[in-house]
Amino acid sequence: MIAPLNAEREPAMNVQLSGCLRPFAPDAARALVRVVVVGHVDHGKSTLIGRLLHEAGGLPEGKLATLAAVSARRGMPFEWSFLLDALQTERDQGITIDTSQIRLRTPARDVVLIDAPGHAEFLRNMITGAAQADAALLLVDAAEGAREQTRRHGYLLHLLGVRQVAVVVNKMDRLGFDPDRFRAIEAEMTAALAGLGLTPAAVIPVSARTGDGVARHASATAWYRGPTVLAMLDAFSPAKAPADLALRLPVQAIYKFDHRRIIAGRLESGRIGVGDKILVMPAAKPARVRSIESWPAPAPSPAPRAATAGQSVGITLDREIFVERGHVICAAASPATPAKRLRARVFWLDRQPLAVGGEIVARIGTASSPAVVRTIEDAVDPGLLASDGADVIEQNHVGEIGIELRQPLATDAHAADPNSGRIVLEFGGRIAGGGLVLATETADAHAPSGRRARDQAFVGTRTARMDLDADALGAMASALAPVLAALSPAQRIASLRRELAGKIVFTTSFGLEDQVILHLISQQDDNIDIVTLDTGRLFPETYALWAQAERHYGRTIRAVYPRHDDLEALVARQGIDGFHRSREARIACCNVRKVEPLERALAGARGWIAGLRAEQSAHRRDMALVAAEPDRALIKLNPLFDWTREQLLAFVSANDVPVNPLHARGFASIGCAPCTRAIAPGEPERAGRWWWEEEQKKECGLHARSS
Ligand code: SF4
Predict the structure, then answer these.
(1) Parallel/antiparallel/unpaired status of strands 109-115 and 101-105
(2) pLDDT value at 526 more than 90
(3) Most buried residue, 104, 234, 304, 324, by most Cβ within 10 Å?
(4) Spatial CA neighbour of 408 closest among 294, 491, 328
C-alpha cells in the first residue's frame, strides 16, 4: 500500500524528468513498467500528471513553492497543470525537461509515464517499435462520462494492443463524490472497453485537483474499495523480460575459423547454453549447441557455457547443416513459425498509398522476402482515431494487411514475442512502413489442390472477385443448397469452409443463434473471421457477453465501427435518438451504424455466415439456407436456418454456451439498446425490435438490402 505523501515528509518515491535536479537511475533489480496516459486534455490530464509528480516526491527543490508564489503574484489560484506547463517551458528553452516521458519510482516499480499528446506520432512510435507501453491510464471527466472522445482513446489502446488499462474518473469533487454517478460511469466505461476486448484493471474515482484518490483516498470516497492511482501504477505487470521468452537468435553472419563455422548474432530473446537442442528456422533443421565462442580466446578462463538476451554471441553446432544470414536459431521446444502468409497491423509512411496487389519487401529481423499484399482492412486515420473506410492505406495511416511471402520467414505474433513479431516494409527500395505481426500461417496450412487451387487464385484481388459473376455464384449456391440441407449446422459450416477458398466472415450480434454458431466454429479448425458490428448503442450486457465469449472460446471477435464522419453527420442531422421519428430516420441510423460497416466487414470475403432463422419472422421465411450475393461476390450461409428456438435453447444448455442475461428478462432478439424491448409471452421473437414500426417494416437493412 502506498502511504499518503506530502511536501513536508521524506519522499518515498523519486521522479525523473530528464535533466531535473533529482536524477533517476533505473534499478536493474526493480521491474520497469511503461504506462501511457490517454485522455482528453480538458479531462485533467496535465493536472493528474502534475499531481502524480508531486505525490511521488522528488520534484526539483522549491519548484512548487516558486510556482505557487508566481500564481499568487498574478492573482491566480495555483493549478497543478501549471507544473507541467512550467516544465514544458523549460524544455522549450532547452533547459531540462522531456515531459513526454516522465519517470516515477513507486515502492515496487520504476514507472515511465508516457504522455500521448498527438495520436498520429504516438501510434507510429508504438507500432514501429520506437516506443512501448505495458499499461495505460485512461482519463474520463466525471461530469461528462464516456463520450465519443473517450471511446476513441479506448480504441487507440486497442490498436496498440495495450491490455492493462485503469480508468481514472477525474473531477469527482465537482460532483460531490457522488457514488451513483461514479458507478454509472464505471458501468459505461466497462461496457465500452469490453466492446474493444479490454477489461479495466480498476476504475478509480479521483480529484486530481485536490489529490483525492491519487495517492490516498478521501473520506468522501469511503464507499470505494479499489486502489489509488499510485497503487495502481505499482500493481501493473511489467512486460516479460526478453530473457524469459523463448530463444530467438537471428543469424547475422557465418564466420569460418580453422575447422569451425561460427554462427554470429545478437540474442534477441531467451537464453542459450552448450548442449541445448535448437531448430534453425524457417527450415526447422535440428542440432545441438556445441560451443559458445568468445574473442579473443578466453584462456586461461574457460569458454562461456551460456548467454542470455541482449548479448551478441558466436556459437558452433554439433553437425553440418545449412545456415545463413536471415535464419533464426530457436529453442527446439518452441520455435518461431515458418510463415508463408501473415497478418500485420502497419503504419504506412510512403506517399504512394499501400494497395491490394502491391509488391513490397518484408523484413523480419535479419531476414527479408519479396511479398504481395493480399488484403487490406481497417485502414484508420490516426488523427481522427476512426476508420477511414478505404481499401488502401494512405500515408501516415494505420491498417491491417494480409501478405503472402515468396520465401517463408521465421517470425512470431507480436503478442508472443515483441522482438520477432515486428515487421518492416520496403517499397520501391526504401523503408515505407512497419508494424506488428498479428497472426502467421505456415506454407502448408492451406495447401491448395484441385478446385481449391483454382479458387485460391481468386483470393484478395478485385478482378478475380468480379470473375465470380452472378451466374457462377448462383450455380454454386444452387449446387451447395441440397448438399448442406442434409447436414448438421456444424457440418454445414465445415463444408462451406472446404468448398470456398479465401476469406469467410461470420458476423455475430451475440444473439442465441450467434452464440451457437460461435460454439460450432470454435470446435473446428476453421480459419473463419469472426466479426461484430459495434453500433455504439449496444446493451452493457452485450458488451460483457462479447468479452466473456472471447475468454470462453479463446477467439478474437473483431469489431467494425461506424465511420466517424458519417456518425457525426447523422447525429448533427437527426439527433442521437432521431431514429424514433420516422422509418427513414431509422434506416438512416441503421445504414450508418450497421449497413456500411457490414460492407467493410465483408470486403474481400468469399463466404458470409450469419445467424438468421426462418421462424424468426415472415420476412426471414423468404430467405434461404444458402444464397448467392452477386453484389458482394460471395455465398451466404445461415447454418441454423431451419432450427427452432427450442432447439437453440436445448443446445445452449447442453453445451454450456454463454448467452446474454437479457434473455432471462424477456428479451428475445437483442440489438441496439434504444431499439429493443422485452417481449410478452406469445409475442413473435422479433416483436421487441423497432416495436414502434409495423411488422413488415422491421428489418434494418442488414439482412434485407432492399430496405
Ligand atoms: Fe440505430 Fe436503432 Fe438501427 Fe441501432 S437498431 S442502428 S440505434 S436505428
Answers:
(1) antiparallel
(2) no
(3) 104
(4) 328
In contact, 654 and 666? CB cutoff 8 Å: no
Alpha helices in 353-488, H assignment, sequence order: 450-456, 462-467, 470-485
Q: Catalytic residue positions?
A: 700
Cell numbers placing 45: 490530464
Contact 550, 530 (CB under 8 A): no
Residue 342's alpha-carbon distances to 161, 394, 406, 415, 450, in angstroms, are 17, 20, 12, 14, 24
| CA 675 to ligand 1 centroid distance, Å | 6
pLDDT > 60? residue 673? yes
pLDDT at 464 over 60: no
Give the residue whose CA is nearest to atom 4 of ligand 1.
672
Q: If you measure from the C-alpha of residue 39 to the centroid of ligand 1, how many angstroms do you get, rounded to a whole number? A: 28
User: In 10 A of CB 562, how many CB atoms?
Assistant: 26
* Ligand 1-lining residues (CB < 6 angstroms): 535, 537, 579, 586, 589-590, 593-594, 671-672, 674-675, 700
Query: Which structural domains are found in the chain, ordered by start?
Result: 11-235 (3.40.50.300), 248-331 (2.40.30.10), 340-465 (2.40.30.10), 485-697 (3.40.50.620)
What pLDDT is attached to residue 485? 84
- Dump strand ranges (E) for 159-245: 164-170, 202-205
- In tens, the pLDDT along 632-672 reads 889 999 999 999 989 999 999 989 999 999 999 999 989 99
pLDDT tens digits for range 322-377: 899 999 999 988 888 888 999 998 888 889 999 999 999 999 988 999 999 999 98
Kindly report the protein residue whose alpha carbon is nearest to atom 8 of ligand 1: 586
Q: What is the DSSP letter of 267?
A: -
Using most ligand atoms within 8 A of CB, pick from 592, 593, 693, 702 the residue to mutate for ligand 1: 593
Global confidence as pTM: 0.52
Of the ranges 2-16, 213-227, 512-526, 668-682, which one carries the lowest mean pLDDT score? 2-16
Taking the centre of ligand 1 as the mean of its atom positions, its distance from the CA of residue 570, in whole angstroms, is: 12
- pLDDT of residue 407 exceeding 60: yes
Higher pLDDT, 302 or 241: 241
